[in-house]
Design a protein that fits this description.
By secondary structure, the protein is mainly alpha-helical. 75% of the residues lie in helices and 0% in strands.
Length: 140
């Protein structure tokens, strides 16, 4: 799933350590293998997603004529994020997307289940997509 053998090995080791720390109760060797395989698969998918995102160069300067329009659009979206998302959704979105943290780490910090954090993130993204679609529709 990962093009770099070293990266794949890192994901495998990180997954093993994560499972070891949590010490999930397993009834059999087969169940342990399945749990590790699922964890490694999910971690590999997360790594691939992370690799697709490209951070902006800090020295990037945009002097194009529509820079002001983009800045206005950004500020409008920022305002809507503040208005439409709950404090928890804003925090989860920021930590996941900009802080690069895992849902499991965020869940521990917020004393929530990872599934609940994932659901809040999904709801936040959905609200933002709907807001963006509405904004684009209104601009036409």
């Amino acid at each position: 799933m990962l093009p770099d053998p070293g990266g794949a090995e890192d994901v495998l080791q990180d997954s093993f350590v994560r499972l070891w720390r949590r010490q999930y109760p397993v009834a059999s060797e087969k169940e342990a293998e399945a749990l590790l395989a699922r964890t490694v698969r999910n971690a590999s998918l997360n790594e691939r997603r992370r690799a697709r995102t490209v951070p902006l160069d800090k020295d990037f300067v945009d002097d194009s004529p529509d820079r002001e329009d983009r800045e206005k659009a950004y500020e409008e979206m920022r305002r809507r994020i503040e208005q439409e998302l709950t404090e928890t959704q804003r925090y989860i979105l920021e930590e996941k997307e900009y802080g690069g943290r895992t849902l499991e780490d965020i869940a521990k910090e917020l004393k929530m289940e990872p599934a609940a954090v994932r659901m809040q993130l999904s709801r936040a993204r959905k609200k933002l997509r709907e807001t963006l679609k509405k904004t684009l529709k209104d601009d036409r």
